[in-house]
Amino acid sequence: MHGILLILPSNKESMSEDIFKKIISHAKEYGYIFQSSEIYDGLSAVYDYGQYGSELKNNIRNYWWKSMVQHHENIVGIDAAIFMHPTTWKASGHVDAFNDPMIDNKDSKKRYRADVLIEDYAEKQRQKAEKEITKAKKRFGDDFDEKLYRETNPRVKGYLDKADEAIDKMVKSLEADDLAAVKQLIEDLEIACPISGSRNWTDVRQFNLMFDTKMGSLSEGADKIFLRPETAQGIFVNFLNVMKTGRMKVPFGIAQTGKAFRNEIVARQFIFRMREFEQMEMQFFVKPGTEMEWFEFWKEQRMEWHKKMGFPESKYRWHDHDKLAHYANAATDIEFEFPFGFKELEGIHSRTDFDLGAHQKYSGKKLQYFDPELNENYVPYVVETSIGLDRTFLAVFSHSLQDEKLDDGSERTVLRLPKFLAPIKAAILPLVKKDGMPEMARRIFDDLKNDFMLQYDEKDAIGRRYRRQDAIGTPFCITVDNESLSDNAVTIRERDSMKQERIAIDKLAAYLFEQLKY
Ligand code: GAP
């Protein structure tokens, strides 16, 4: 690889607000992401994808869809409506339980999720412990026994115990719906507002995250409907339809991608937490009692999917849930190291028969599978994989954006997107705008455009055009020069190494197919 990296988002020390700001401004400057309705000063936590952003988003979605639907004979895909009968959300538990505990600081007037304040406190304690461990590692060298040190060093143990105790108390209070105890815990831990620095808190209250709207055709008083807060319920209510029409046999899965809406209390961090976002979810229906095997199976499959994008393994970690959702008997997250730290990217949940059971009860329809081997009916158990498309976009984009200092002293900004996900796969560039080069470049463009998303560019000096494509993340630049007209070959420049090679025009398609494989 050429050059020295100036920005290393994967490096903990350099995780700063500056890097995050750079990511946001690059996304805007290069047509990836715009603030929604920006000419009216924007709408909080709502974003639009621009010309390159929508391509990258489509490519991530297709990568997911292929891995789920095309690669598994027993998984089919659907596209359910956003609006659903209001009873859906009663049955799913969202009307009663899709709440976040919120708390306001009276001085800064800022609103926080009470559980996040406590989790952040615990994370800080863990970080202090890690710092101590790193220092000791350096001090003791090869003789260092990390496990023993963790268990016996009083300072490290103190930090880790504080973290565990805080989480333990929070989980118990939330499970008992004891919001006064949650507030007491925030006070006992002496958590201060990051803005005002004060501990002048309101009481903790529950806040339902569903957006509602009205639908004219329902009878008087029953016109309130919700914008779906997850796509999963569209799958559950279609379980029978798909099973019958697709002649599906347990175990089988139903996959779906689509918009979801949540009135998030704290909606910051760009597209990490949005009020309108897109999910990619798959519900896998299994025989009761086999759900833990399938849970492990899907954990492995999903981690493989992430790793295939080629980012370092150290960017991912597992986080088992401290507090299980009302429907789950096991749950874990795949966390990714974003520029602001490790955060949830995907959830894998063993949802038992909660959803199908509840819809069966509320609808009065039998949502069961007849198992020919057992000769009996049962409500299948469900293992779910659920990932945010926008959050995956942020993971991919933030890790890929790098500033480099080159050997000749110049600098470049390069978006090292996984090649198969890049919005533009190749740019076709006539070296100059004369001598038949543009015509030849156009012919190449026309020959390849059915198979690859391309861009034709003849403006500015070739060096500037290369830089422009680097910043967009285009993996290949194909340059038509003087010799091309006689040797029927072009120069192909690879984005990351900046290496150039000569290649016959009739070999271009095969070359690109090979390079873009994953
Ligand atoms: N059906 C299960 C479910 O919805 P979740 O953990 O609430 O589970 C799944 O959401 C995934 O959806 C998350 O891991 C995250 O990637 C994404 N997600 C959730 N809320 C989001 C938001 N406000 N903005 C962007 N992505 C979000």
Short description:
By secondary structure, this protein is α+β, with helices and mostly antiparallel strands.
Describe this structure in words.
With 518 residues, the chain is α+β, with helices and mostly antiparallel strands. Helix content is 37%, strand content 24%. Strands 4-10-11-17-14-13-12 form a seven-stranded mixed sheet. The longest helix has 27 residues, at 114-140. 33% of the residues are buried. Mean pLDDT is 93; it is low at 1-15. The protein folds into three domains: 3-91 and 210-399, BirA Bifunctional Protein, domain 2, CATH 3.30.930.10; 102-205, no CATH class; 424-515, Anticodon-binding domain (Rossmann fold), CATH 3.40.50. The protein contains 17 helices and 24 strands. Bound molecules: glycyl-adenosine-5'-phosphate. Glycyl-adenosine-5'-phosphate is lined by residues 230, 232, 262, 264, 273-274, 277, 279, 281, 344-347, 384, 386-388, 390-391. The site of glycyl-adenosine-5'-phosphate has 19 residues, from strand 11, strand 14, strand 17 and helix 13.
